[in-house]
Amino acid sequence: MKRREALSVFAAALAAPRAVRAQEPEWPQWRGPRRDGISQETGLAGQWPAAGPQRLWRTEGLGAGYGSVSMAGGRIYVQGAAGGRSEVHCLNQADGKRLWTTPLGRMGGNDRGDGPRATPTIDGQRIYVLTENGDLACLNAADGKLVWTLNILREFGGSNPYWLLSESPLIDGQKLIVTPGGRGAGMAALDKATGKTIWKASSLNDGAGYASAIAADVGGVRCYLNLTAQAGVGVRAGDGALLWRYERPANRTANCTTPLFHNNQAFYTSAYGTGCGLLQLKPAANGSVETSEVYFNRDMMNHHGGVILHNGHVYGFSNAILTCMNWATGAVAWRDRSTGKGSLTLAGGKLYLLGENGTVALADASPQGYVERGRFRVDDLGAPVWAHPVVCGGRLYLRNQGRLECYNVRA
What we know:
Layout (H helix, E strand, L loop, with lengths): L1 H22 L14 E2 L14 E6 L10 E3 L2 E8 L2 E8 L5 E9 L2 E2 L2 E2 L6 E3 L2 E5 L4 E6 L5 E6 H5 L13 E3 L2 E4 L9 E4 L5 E4 L13 E5 L2 E7 L4 E5 L5 E5 L13 E3 L2 E6 L4 E9 L5 E9 L9 E4 L2 E6 L2 E6 L5 E5 L5 E6 L2 E6 L3 E6 L7 E6 L12 E3 L2 E6 L2 E6 L3
Parallel strand pairs: 1-29
Antiparallel strand pairs: 2-35, 3-4, 4-5, 5-6, 7-8, 9-10, 10-11, 11-12, 13-14, 14-15, 15-16, 17-18, 18-19, 19-20, 21-22, 22-23, 23-24, 25-26, 26-27, 27-28, 29-30, 30-31, 31-32, 33-34, 34-35
């Protein structure tokens, strides 16, 4: 009997760490669990020390690239490029040490920098990665071994946009969603287990933009939303039928910002003198969707730093000016130069701001005005800091070209 009790205690001790790990916060994809740039964590510091939060570790040698990080199960996944190859790395979340690296294809580059622009998507024991040249891969999360791979530009007849593919793949149930931009294949759904095509959006001929898709339910109609090279679009999840196409918030240079969806409304924004629009969506007969414009204005011209909806207000950089505007009306609550043009995420009711010049700041997410709670700088490595910040597990992660830094932001 004593031996059995001892074995039971031993088995419980072995199981305990797994149970703890399962409850750890995760950031499994681009812009977090819901692709909205928001962390649900609590217990974070409301004010930073004068020198900024404590840096816990720094990892070098990730290669060129502008993609952010995803993490789950105590591991971090991030893309980079070196030696002419586009790669994906797996790091230990505790100390940033590299666990494995898998090459995925030829590196791409242009006048704005080399390497991948996307963030890996974690789905259980698999990760999904899209490179700057269109190589889409499914890998084992544990060891980085390839499960399947294909090139979405060749597969669907798309053309790589000038500043290279920047989309982070979307997983929705058994489907993997990408926007390759081929004629009759502006968006496509693949079987995530095999890479086989489920459908192509045959009525969508838009070229690929630089944004990533989101999933949403419009009164029971499952949809995928994205910002293509020509328009804000929505397609039906079941068969890829084009449900709406909204050109006004899209420019003809670079459409980069992931759409927002809330309460049967879709928000699209782009820069280059364009602006933002809120679209009312209403389910209609035969699984279609009716649309009407709520407003359009030029008060939010977001380039690529993303926008966040929090307590009825949208926060984002309108060109170089951090702006807070009312979601329902489009009225501006305040503007502030803050860090200069950059990207942002939200956690604990605070905005974590990362300027492309390397300035990092913490500020209140409140329509009452801009109140900053600390700032510091990361090193200038010779290229803009464009990777979006991530807050996960009480830590702030900042990717700056081949470097990733981790900071303690707990209270």
